[in-house]
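Database export, one record per block. Field names are fixed; values are copied verbatim from the stored entry.
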Amino acid sequence: MSAPVVSVQGVSKRFGPVAALDDVSFDLHRNGIYGLLGRNGAGKTTLMQLLTGQQFATGGTIRVFGADPVENAAVLQRISFVKESQRYPDTFKVRHVLFAGRLLHPAWDEAFARSLVADFQLPVGRPVKKLSRGMLSALGVIVGLASRAPLTFFDEPYLGLDAVSRQLFYDRLLADYAEFPRTVVLSTHLIDEVSDLIEHVLLIERGRIVLSEAVDTLRGQVVTLTGPATAVDALTANTDELHRDRLGGLTRATVRGTVSADRAREAGVRVEPVSLQQLVVRITSASQPGRNSPGGSTPPTDAREAVS
């Protein structure tokens, strides 16, 4: 396997007493669509700021294309980072943003950018400060896609788009990725909408990576069993239980591990797949302090919201 595009080893980031990231390690490989998932305040944006050289890590090492990204023009010109709260100079019009994108990104595709402008019906002569939230989101999406950067981050810039425009973004991303593969990181709360796009999940909770796994692998590992309590207990004895509740006289358990379909059928237990969104909810809940927590002290949620 080739060297990873991104290698993060033991990285931490503190803002005073607040630990935004704590001993984070993972790799991002060439040509894949990654979902960076987690609740508000989990550390997603802080992590992306570190990977794009906008913040210094408190500890650990970060290598992007084999080098430290901080103040490294050779690395940064291969990265596109688009976020929901993207800011532009007050005097810029839409065409100025697109021109800047062309200057900053060596792999920029001008024809693709123009087709996206037409798709999203974006007025190129309008001042950016007079764009609606949806148009501003569309502008960020266009820059991120047309950049064709080898490493592209989308930090929820599509939240301002309506459902039709978000689907247009997903369709254009998938079609262009198929023709021009690169490494794409989607940070989003709209998990169900992007579940068919994501190939690998990075789940972050309270500054720690609690899951890094291929989506196809996860779909075969996590299931929900519904049936008599004794039968469910027997089937899940060697699994990692993520959630359990009772439905009348039945027990319903969501587990990660191998469950025999034949044994479940014989015991009258129904086995159902778990959606990616439900999987994230269950694993995140199981990672709370006192419930299979990764360990260590964690700042209060309200303190962490400031360093998402």
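Remark 1: The chain has twelve helices and 13 strands.
Remark 2: The two ends are 32 Å apart (CA to CA).
End of record.
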